[in-house]
Each structure stands twice: as C-alpha cells, then as structure tokens.
Amino acid sequence: MAGQQFQYDDSGNTFFYFLTSFVGLIVIPATYYLWPRDQNAEQLRLKSLRRVHGRCLWYRLRLMKSQQICLSTQQLDREYQEYNPYEVLNLDPGASLSEIKKQYRVLSLKFHPDKGGNEATFMRIAKAYAALTNEQSRQNWEMYGNPDGPGATSFGIALPAWIVDQKNSMLVLLVYGLAFMVILPVVVGTWWYRSIRYSGDQILINTTQLFMHFMYKTPNMNMKRLAMVLTAAFEFDPRSNKETTIRPTDNIEVPQLIRELGNINVKKKEPPFCYPYSLKARVLVLAHLARMDVSEELEEDQRFVVRKSPALLQEMINVGCQLTMMANSRGGFHAPRLVTIENCMKLTQMIVQGLQESKSPLLQLPHFEEEHLRYCISKKYKVRSLQDLVSLKDSDRRSMLRFLGEEKYDEVIAVLGSFPHLTMDTKLQVLDDEDSNNITAGSIVTVTVTLTRKRMSDMFEKEQESTPCPGEEETQVKLKPKCGRTRVKAPLLCLPKPNRPMATWQETYVSSNYEEDEASDKGSESDEGEANKDSPSERDEDSDKQSDTEVDEMEWEALQQSIQRRERALLETKSKVTHPVYSIYFPEEKQEWWWLYIADRRDQTLVSVPYHVCTLKDTEEVELKFPAPSKTGNYQYSVILRSDSFLGLDQIKPLKLEVHEAKAMLDNHPQWDIPDTEEEDEEQEDSDGIEESEEDDEDND
C-alpha cells in the first residue's frame, strides 16, 4: 500500500528474541510441573504420619517409593561429588607422608583382593595413595580435581557432524518437514482422539453410558447387583484400557478364588457381566472386601481395580442424580431409588476400608479381629460402633480391650483418636424473598449446613473433663419456685462442695429475685408520669416502626453477608487435601471427603443433589437448594451426611418443612403508584423545557 514502508531484519537478531520467548512459554510451565518435589519434606510428612498410619498399605507403598527416590538421589550425589583422596584413606587434610604410608599399609592389608577384600575398594585406595605420594598425580588432582588429569572428563555437542554438512542440507530439510508436517500432526491427532474418549473426571464415556443403561434398567439396585455393574466398567477391559492385563495364570487363580468366595453369580449370561475381564474384576473386588490373600501376580491387578473403584462409584452417583432430575422434569420413567444411590456411597466406604457390608465398623481399627468382637458386644459393655467405644470410660475401655497389650492398646487409641467427629448445624430459609422464613409452594428453599470437624480425641478429653474431680461432687440444684414464677430445675453441674448449707444458696437466689422485682417496681413508678404524656396508640406505632426498621436492617445485613459468602466461594479455590484416611487395605493415599444431601426417606427419593464436600478441614458451610412442594402442608425430610471413607460415621438430621400458600401477585403494586400531583409537576417541567428550547432557537436565528 502507498505511504507504508516495511523494514526487514536481514541480520536475524530479533528472530532469536522471538524464538526465546516462544520456547520460554513452553519450557517454564513444563519445568514448574515436572520439577522433582522436595523429598525431604515428603519424608518428614510420612514420619509425622507414622504413629497413626504406619500399618496402612498406602503408607508402606509411599514410604518404599520415597526411600527408593532418596536412595537414587544419594547415589547420584556420590557419583558427582568432588574427589578427595584424604577421605578415601580416612585421613585429615594435610597429613604427613609417613601417616599416609602407614594408613595405606593398614588399608591394603584389609582390602587387598588376595586377603579377601573388595577389589574396587582397593583400587580406590591405591589411586588415592598415588594422588598423595606421586608428584604428577598430586598436580593433576590439585589442578583438575582428578589424579588422572583433564582427560577423565570430556564434553561434546550432542549433534552428528553430517547435520551441518552442506551436502546433506536437502536431506535435513526433508527430515524436518517430515517431523513437523507429518509426525507431529499424527501425534496430536492420536492424543486428541484418545482424550475425547474420557469425561471431565477421567472416566471413559462408554463406562458412563453403561452405568446410565443399568441404572435406568434397574432403579432399585442391591449391593450384589451394584458390584456387578461396577466391575463391568470399561476401565477394566484390556481392549479399552492398556493399564489392565489378562494373564495366562488367570485361568488357574481366578477359578480358585471363585471357589473360596462362593456364590458370586458366575453363571449369569447377561453381557458384559459374563465377560472374562468383568468376572476377574468382580472376583478381585470381593476378595478385597473379604480381606483374602491373593497371589503376587493378582495383587497388582487387585490394587489397580480397588484404586479405580471410588472414582467409578462417584460417576455412578452422578449418573443417578442426572436420571433423577430428568425423571422429575420430564417424567415417563422411574428414577433410581434412594437406596441405589446410598448403596453406591456405602460400597465406596466398604472398598476403602476393605470390609463387607455385614461386618462390624470396629474392624476398621488395627489389631481387631472377628474373635475379639465378642468382648465388645457382651452384656457388660454393649459396644457395637466407634461412638460406643469412644463414650466408654477409660477404665472400662482398658478392661474390655485387655486382650491387647499395652503397646497395641495405645496404637488403637491413637488411631481411634484420629477418626473424624462432625457436628452439623442447619438453617432453613428462602433467600431473595421479603420474608425469608416463610416457605411458600414452589419457592426455592435454601438449607445452609455448617459442618464442623473435630477429632475423636477431643471427645476423650471432654469425657475426662466431665468426670468429677477430687474435692468436687455432682450436685443437682433444685429451687423452690417463687410465687408467680415457673419452676426451674438446673442440670447436673460439677460444683465445689459448698461451705454453707443448701438453704443459704436458696435464700440468696430468692432474695436476689425480690430485690430485682422491687427495683423494677420503683423504676416503673418513676417513669409512669413520663409514659403517660404520650397516648398508648402513639407508643405502639413508634415501637412497631422501630421493630420493623430493626428487622429490615437485620435481613439486609444477612442478605449482604450471604452475597459476600457466595462471592468468596466463587473466587476462592480450596485444596482438596483435607485429612489422610486410615485405611489398612487401600493401596493409595485417600483424602477424607463427605457427601451431603437432603432426602425423603419415606418416599425413597432425593430432594437435593448430593454435594461432594472435598475441602472440609475444620469448618465448611454448604448451601443445598431445592424447590418446595407445590402443595401446602407439613413435610418431613432428612439432611444426611455420609463419609466416603469410613463406616459407621454417617449422620442423619430431621428437617421439618412447613409449606404455606403462595401470595397472589399484585397487578398494581403500591410502589408503582404515582400521585396526580407528581404527574402534573412532570408535565409542567416538560412543557417549560420545550418553551425554553424554542426561545433558544429563536435567539440563534
């Protein structure tokens, strides 16, 4: 184009800046994500978890891997550390020649190959002796850091010479074109077509469709059927996932496990339950739940199946929720029953802990076996859950667990103390409404649930604090009611022994009440004259206005706090690393997560979608929303909290819902009514403005 000039960089200097920037965009993020983590920090973290999680399978595997990395790092450091002949001979720097010869003679007699010593060690000793006694070797060591001279280490360019040869320029250009125009697009296309087979949660799309088919086909799914559907996932099929393998020895070992397990529906001909991969995965999961030993070859496959199962069960829960919403909005088919979704959650707990459905939750603790449960469920203690074990007095607990030694008992208490203890507070309201406490038909109800996590060890401390101390006694204070007052019965208190009789305490309480009444009577008499100046109707109106303004201000502040809380939740990215789960048989470190939802247990239906709480460390606030029923009346729901890692820690809290009739919509709302005087004033202002504009136009003409 005319008037424009272009300048080209003939020297090519700026091209290198462009190339450096382009490469930096790739290299810097890749370096950040691929840089090896600090192994010392990992070692310290594992050391801090050893007392509680030392027996867990995932801990032992992680510790073994960390030790291997540290060992390889130490070997690499030893290979590249600076050569020092004094250290080889175990001498201090600056030792005399006679000391060097004497030490060499001692080490030679010890490590000489003819004397049964190590030949490599002897060669290192001889090399160090030569470096300190031979003048040329000493000079090489002092100048180059090696007694052999500079030839010990060499550097070169990692490029063949024919690449820079001018005769091969066309061949090099052809290779570059083949690499960037053919191989690179093929690699990117292959990666793309493989990645689109997975969902956002890294679950195969075919597996999601399989779950949807069977949950639609069987809305009420028991635990045995659920295990069959889970192990039919395509993640366990070698044709869809290269991480799985089918070994020739499976034809011998899998039937042997089937005979030991008993009835697992082997003869079922329904595909894909009859396929070999599905049958093998089902056998491995059931063997894991039964805590059976398998061969070393099958153990690797079992760890893979068990490690994948929680994510697959979470996908199954998501599919069940989607089908429930579709059934509520469209109709035409039966949504999955509540028991099906809750069985998915319970199966996740069972797989993480390696326990069957009928087993006691006490078997999650270390050193507990089936034969030990008879001591717990006896008539004297009646301990059937973890909460029952915590609520026992320490003396009774020690007496019941006397079959354990002192060391094992301390380990059991340490593990039990690390288990979570959650409290759940609920608040029911209708946000963005004038009356947030009035639930009308069809309105969007918000249940704000505040979860507070503590440790079971805190419950031990509370128990110790609640026991009477020496010199103290539990005293139940009963107070005689004063005339015109309700009877008060104080709870059990841990009070010090009174130094005066109980009647004196009672007289003090009664006399203080009389004094308060007399003071209030005098105050009312003095204020009576001033109060009579205003009429009762005026006082009532003022108090009503004041109370209305206070209520409005409180509601406005609550609304503002709710909006700020939502904004913080949207902007804040919390870590999903919460608390490590104590699981003896799970092969991977599992974080402590929870499900929170509202259900109608009478109709066996979901009311709100289960929320997966993955960021609960100390306190978490969750909002569950659902539409109120279209008919007025009283409804009984349940707020349910379920763990995805522990058995026996689920909580259910009743939620009462009173639905009123919705208010009729007003056609002419008072705030839109404009008085006639205001309309006339607006018309007058408009006419005055028009006249002024006409006068300005005439002046301009």
TrEMBL record:
UniProt key word Membrane: yes
PANTHER family: SEC63 DOMAIN-CONTAINING, TRANSLOCATION PROTEIN SEC63 HOMOLOG
Pfam families: DnaJ (PF00226), Sec63 (PF02889)
Location(s), subcellular: Endoplasmic reticulum membrane
Keywords: Chaperone, Coiled coil, Endoplasmic reticulum, Membrane, Phosphoprotein, Protein transport, Repeat, Transmembrane, Transmembrane helix, Transport
Main location as per UniProt: endoplasmic reticulum
Classification via InterPro entries: C2_domain_sf, DnaJ_domain, Ig_E-set, J_dom_sf, Sec63-dom
Gene: sec63
Compositional bias annotation for Acidic residues: 675-701
Protein's GO biological process: nervous system development; post-translational protein targeting to endoplasmic reticulum membrane; SRP-dependent cotranslational protein targeting to membrane
Xref: SUPFAM superfamilies: Chaperone J-domain, E set domains, Sec63 N-terminal domain-like
Gene Ontology terms, MF aspect: protein transmembrane transporter activity; RNA binding
Residues that span the membrane, as ranges: 15-35, 171-193
GO cellular component: Sec62/Sec63 complex
This protein's name: Translocation protein SEC63 homolog
